[in-house]
Amino acid sequence: MTRGTIKTWYLVHKWTSLICTAFLLMLCVTGLPLIFQDEIDGWLNPPAPMATLPAGTPSLSLDAILKRAAAPAPGDMPLYISFDDDRPIVYVTTGATADVAPAAMHFLAFDARTGATMPPYVPGVMAFILELHTDMLLGFWAEIFLGVMGLLFFVAIVSGVVLYAPFMAKLDFGTLRRGRSKRLGWLDRHNLLGIVTLAWASVVGVTGTINTFVVPITNIWKANGLAAIAASETRTPLGPNRASVQAALDAVQRKAPDMEPQFIAFPGVVFSSKHHYAVFMKGTTPMTSKLLLPGFVDAATGRLDSVTPMPWYMQAMLLAQPLHFGDYGGLVMKIVWAVFDVLTIVVLGSGLYLWLRRKGGPSEQRVREVVMAGETA
Questions:
Q1: β strands within 201-275, DSSP E
Q2: Residue-wise pLDDT tens digits, 326-368
Q3: How many CB atoms sit inside 10 A of residue 43's CB?
């Protein structure tokens, strides 16, 4: 590799790293507790006890649960129904309109077997940390900005790998040159930990970037596949009397008997059209439970219009979300994710330290350091 090429890659690595480091440090620090979000939430907000009933007690109809959900806020309309993964609880989200802001929504929980009202989830410290991690409490454009920082982070990783080869040309892997300057020692640690965390940092950086583009990706799906489904049949205008939600779920479940419901989106909300109940089914294994199969039922007539797999870009988004936090392999995988998160914090912090303790010469001097580093063991 020529000196000019090394200089170019050095500048790319330097500036992409400097621009994104502060934001990546924030994401790594806030992401660390989020890896254990379920465990921390369970500790801070233990689940309320449920009635003890005989095994196999059937669940109530979703229509009956919706009637109970309408009582606290008579002017609201149902927006979503979702199902607890571990307990027989049905969650109902309502709002004044289909496009109501999340802050104005009402969240209700019911025992699926008895219809008894359960204490709703109360957002606590983990919800605050998640929002800080997602958009720094600043909304949609801040989320997109963090996505751009994720892209810069990935470029910094690639450029760091390119520079690693000439740097380590005459050094054994993992060499830490002792007895030299403190800055040189941190340079060796920075390079070693950067390579050790390479795969993990790349995966988390890319999946994190994908997660920031959930809204645009979903809008592409709505404008293409979902719009085609909505336009495929003649529509009966929606009135106050709509088709049974339980019948809609049953119709989709007959098409996917080996799957179970994840959530139901009502007409007009983000994940549905203006005419459909969108019933999202999931698999029953750790991997397939992250992939959703939507079925669309005409909310006026109860006609099943389509059960169509989501396109590849939506599936990639669905897989990216849990992979970003290591939510696939149970507690062991979460611990591994946490260890790599801490190591990445050290990489980012050491990179910042190396820049602050730079010798002050032009970039050519730093390029010379990279070229000559492998010649001094």
A1: 260-265
A2: 877 688 889 999 999 999 999 999 888 888 877 655 444 555 5
A3: 9
